[in-house]
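Table S2 (continued). Query chain:
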Amino acid sequence: VQLQASGGGLVQAGGSLRLSCAASGSIFSINAMGWYRQAPGKQRELVATITSGGITNYVDSVKGRFTISRDNAKNMVYLQMNSLKPEDTALYYCNLKWSTWSTRYDYWGQGTQVTVSS
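Corresponding output:
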């Protein structure tokens, strides 16, 4: 399984960006996809996740500003980021995970940089 993230960039505070992540390979149909981020000197943190059934979860700091969505037919996940703040600056990673009765599968993309200037 491979994950390819794209869409990062440099934006001014208050601006918007849309991240995309394409998953390829042998993917179990019941899964969760999501976005995590890691700022310099900080631990990686969850930003948002969405299950194949459409259930979403967000970290409190992005609620009301970010929206996660997915296209199950294309194995794509998106993160629409509005009202960006300098503290959103980080390397954003795409994640795909699922579990069978015996094994947990956890895959990561290469990361895409988001920089928000004040």
